[in-house]
Design brief:
- It contains 13 helices and no strands.
- The chain has 317 residues and is mainly α.
- 39% of the residues are buried.
- Keywords: Membrane, Transmembrane, Transmembrane helix.
Amino acid sequence: MDLNFITDYLTSIDADVILPLGIILFLLVVPWGPEIWQNFFTFMFAVKGLALLIFPEVVAGYLIQKKVDALHLQEIRCLGIILLADALSHILTRKSSDPTVKTSLLWSRTLYFATMSMLMYFTMKTTADSKKNNINLKLYQVSWPATVLFVCGYLYYSLAESDWGGYSEQSKTWRNVNIRVDFLIWFLHGILSFVFPRIQCQFQTTLTDLDTAHGFLARGMGASFLMLAITAGRSVNFLREEDKKSILLSHGVANLLFLMTMAFCQIFTKVFSEWHLFYGMSFVALTAINAFLGCDVPNMLKSAKFQFRNIFSTKGD
């Protein structure tokens, strides 16, 4: 399937048009309250996540100016998976009456957009004259003001919450241990990816020459990991066990998708080293097992099956 027409269309859009449209969209969404605001970004995360996961080559043609390699594509896929995981977390918990759930998702996305805005500004200032620059700076010059607006919107709604939750631990179960392990993994890998992107990239690949796009995408993954870490860390204090299960389920699905894309790269490309197999894939597999054990998959499937039957049942049944 030829997708070049999508790339041509995206790269032909003028920056002078994108930014005003972004501002208008922001002004249309922000007055409707935090629920509409969150639902809007959940939809955007889901759409963008699917695009990054399914069409990384198309997205790379828009983000990267020069040569695109397998590491670029895998980093883009990973960013898409994380956005999908966060969107799934909100979808599964949006009906919850626990204020801790609401504020946790608000603050996690506030941190994500704030970190991404700083990353974009740093990238624009430091890579413009770099000989290894391989990113479309015009894109970031347009995206940065819009990202700052999103930070302002999320910060406003986060600070406007009167009840921030923060209850003490409600139960002494193994699920809380699963959650803490999940938080620790996302948090440490987020810090490592954001602070030491070169080490993270070279450690599991055979590449010796990295460009600015590798570094930017790795740091973007770090910011995304920290977003999931905040949600996981706060979920220990959720009032309902079902909400905890939902967070672990979304993170487990993310790790499962990570594992599938990593296996694809390991088999069909020559960029990734043995460390990618022995460390990366093994660690992701253990993280997925931890999440699925905590969310009690068998009982969740039974509950989902029961709810699915109720949807299609009639009053006369």
